Amino acid sequence: MANDNQDMNSVIRRLYECNALKFGQFKLKSGIESPVYIDLRIIISQPDLMIDLCHQYVPLMKQCRFDLICGVPYTALTMATYLSTKFGYPMIMRRKEMKQHGTKQTLEGVFQRGNRVIIIEDLISSGSSILETALALRQAGLIVTDAIVFIDREQGGIQNLKHPDIDIKVHCCIHFSELIHFLQIEGHITEEKSNKVLDWITSNHCDIPDNLHNQLALITHSSSWKSYEDRSRLCKNPLGRRLFELMAKKRSNLCVSADLTDCQSILKLADQAGPHIVMLKTHVDIIDDFNMDFARRLRDLAQNHNFILFEDRKFADIGSTVQKQYAGGLFRLSEWTDLINAHILPGPGLIEALHQEAMARSLKDGQARGCLLISHLSSQGNLMPADYAQEAYKMAIKNSDFIVGFISQAKVSADPAFIHMTPGVKIGDDKSDKLGQQYTTPEDAVQNKGADLIIVGRGIISKLDSSFEEFEANILSYKQRGYDAYINLCQ
């Protein structure tokens, strides 16, 4: 034991007696069946035990250099609060969810960039919860080099956090094997149960999830900028590969949003914009006179001018329904569109259903198809939760042969094979359309919001009825500013 004393023995004994240490069969968050479950949340109802347990942290804290302490939400918040009030350590608190009112902060308390923070946690398995907290602190400009846990479950967490990209030294009050050995000596568990639990621990190493490695890469910028040509070679989806190749060949990262209500205007837009864009986005359900002849003519223009057709359908239903919406009905989208998009709320069945139809159609005509996941919305006051983008990332990773990338307002994936497309781009002083849409400039979208491709609607279609020269000058301005922003990032 790190603190080999009677106080620690008493704490372990009382943790067992109050059922904070449970033996049996338990299904963990990961889905794995475990013969042991540690639930230190129970100590909030045992104030004397909590105080004695918290005192075990103090000798280790004295070995570390720090200005502030921060407990991992939620179990360790009570421990950090006690340590702060008892010993005078200034504390900050990390919220799991950003406030939707007031200051909308994820960190509460008084701090300055460059302050050193030590993380307090109850136990460590993979190290994921400590890393999540460390990432939030580092994003705020705070320095995190140390964390203290009460129990090290000895499943690889301490080693995981030693990784050079993470570089957090974890100090523990007691190792799990020491805890089990003490309980066996005291006669609380048999030697057979002790061996069973320790064997299970040894054979169940815990890794940090891919999505946290992804967040780490995004924050540390370890995913260096690559050219469109280089990124095309990384794509598992042929459509994603084609899109990157188009962007390099046409020296354009521009998608025009054809938010028009009649076929003739959309065809005119496609023809005039075609030489300068890599993608044209449609909303077919706002077209008053849609027909399949229009779809075929639009397809011909896409082939002649070499751009991708993207239907902004935002699928969001059960698998069997979206499959019918994609393949049939009035619009028969799978016949003529290259790219679609979807919400992830209905779950993976939606993606599987769309993928099946896309593959079936591609077998017939030889054309690659793909899907974008909606990770953010550009409308003010939207109700997407803070972790929605990372859930979209997880789904994209599992379906990378179909998912091309994201409709986003911030970088979602550090994997350069995925493309990020940002809507609401407009040159000018307008910041909003007074109906919730929020505008950003080409430079802000690419350099600050992580966009690989900018989506422009009203900024371009408002000039459709102007002279050809005026339309051309306007669209060239968007094309040049968007592409120059990309070039500046690559240099």
Automatic annotation (TrEMBL):
Any single GO BP term: 'de novo' UMP biosynthetic process
Active site: 312 (for ompdecase activity), 314 (for ompdecase activity), 317 (for ompdecase activity)
Enzyme Commission code(s) on record: 2.4.2.10, 4.1.1.23
Record domain Orotidine 5'-phosphate decarboxylase: where: 253-471
One Pfam family in the UniProt entry: Pribosyltran
Xref: InterPro entries: Aldolase_TIM, OMPdecase, OMPdecase_AS, OMPdeCOase_dom, OPRT, Or_phspho_trans_dom, PRTase-like, PRTase_dom
Keywords per UniProt: Decarboxylase, Glycosyltransferase, Lyase, Multifunctional enzyme, Pyrimidine biosynthesis, Transferase
Pathway participation: Pyrimidine metabolism; UMP biosynthesis via de novo pathway; UMP from orotate: step 2/2; Pyrimidine metabolism; UMP biosynthesis via de novo pathway; UMP from orotate: step 1/2
Similarity comment text for this entry: In the N-terminal section; belongs to the purine/pyrimidine phosphoribosyltransferase family. In the C-terminal section; belongs to the OMP decarboxylase family.
Name of the protein this chain belongs to: Uridine 5'-monophosphate synthase
Annotated organism of origin: Euroglyphus maynei
